[in-house]
Write a structure and sequence with these properties.
By secondary structure, the protein is an all-alpha fold. The protein is 76% helix and 0% strand.
Length: 253
């Protein structure tokens, strides 16, 4: 690894961020669908859903944020695929830079762009009535979980971007992830679901992450959910990173 890994990664990050800022429609697209779902569930379905709370926007917000991140990481796979097909990687590898810095540039760009999307959605939520009694430490914990979730899914996106044979194939992996919140505690309590669906909902990562974020925002006890959610995020992150680096070495060797 190059001794200048950090500076090399900074250069790659700057390059990727410039591409994103030149096409702000990407961030707009990422935020439109989650906001549309938030409007639909709050103003159309909200009155018929028994979630045990008077403020359904508060109940909904954690799942909407995860959905936005899942949508955003599909563009990381797409940009990575385009760079790979366009020969950009070969040009960078002919320079004296850390090879992994090219991947880290895309990964950190995903973190930046998703942070912007999450911020926009929170602002829209405030207009719609979202309120939180969380303190600074609670918000920092929420931010940490969202960062871990973003990094974990982004490295999954890296695998897809490096392995796909078409642009559509590069981003298609994100579709099941985007819809995972629908079979979780994000929109309704899992207790209201039929047996097999409830069993799946309660044992997939989105439910524990949503429950943890919701408890932190409402200053409620988080219980074991926080450890389960951290276990999922760290496990996916470590596994996806290892596989992504193996695929990357095979591609550039």
């Amino acid at each position: 690894m190059s001794a200048h890994f950090v500076s090399d990664t900074g250069v790659m990050l700057g390059r990727s961020v410039r591409h994103v800022t030149r096409s702000l429609d990407t961030i707009i697209t990422v935020t439109v669908m989650p906001i549309a779902f938030m409007l639909l569930f709050v103003y159309v379905f909200g009155g018929a859903i028994q979630a045990g709370t008077d403020n359904y926007v508060n109940y909904l917000m954690p799942g909407i944020l995860l959905m936005a991140i899942a949508t955003g990481i599909s563009y990381t796979a797409y940009r990575l695929f385009n760079d790979l097909q366009g020969g950009i990687f070969e040009r960078f590898h002919s320079m004296p830079i850390a090879r992994s810095s090219v991947l880290w540039g895309h990964v950190l760009t995903s973190l930046v762009s998703n942070t912007i999307s999450v911020g926009v959605i929170l602002l829209v939520g405030l207009v719609m009535g979202f309120r939180s009694s969380a303190g600074v430490l609670d918000w920092l914990a929420v931010a940490g979980i969202l960062v871990l979730f973003t990094l974990a899914l982004t490295w999954v996106a890296v695998i897809s971007g490096l392995s796909a044979s078409t642009p559509d194939g590069a981003s298609a992996f994100s579709y099941p992830i985007i819809f995972l919140p629908f079979v979780s505690s994000a929109f309704v309590p899992t207790e209201t679901m039929p047996g097999p669906v409830q069993a799946f909902a309660e044992n997939q990562p989105v439910t524990s992450i949503v429950n943890t974020i919701r408890a932190l925002l409402e200053q409620q006890p988080v219980g074991n959910d926080i450890w389960i959610s951290l276990g999922w995020c760290v496990g996916i992150l470590v596994g996806a990173y290892a596989v992504a680096m193996a695929v990357y070495r095979r591609k550039v060797s």
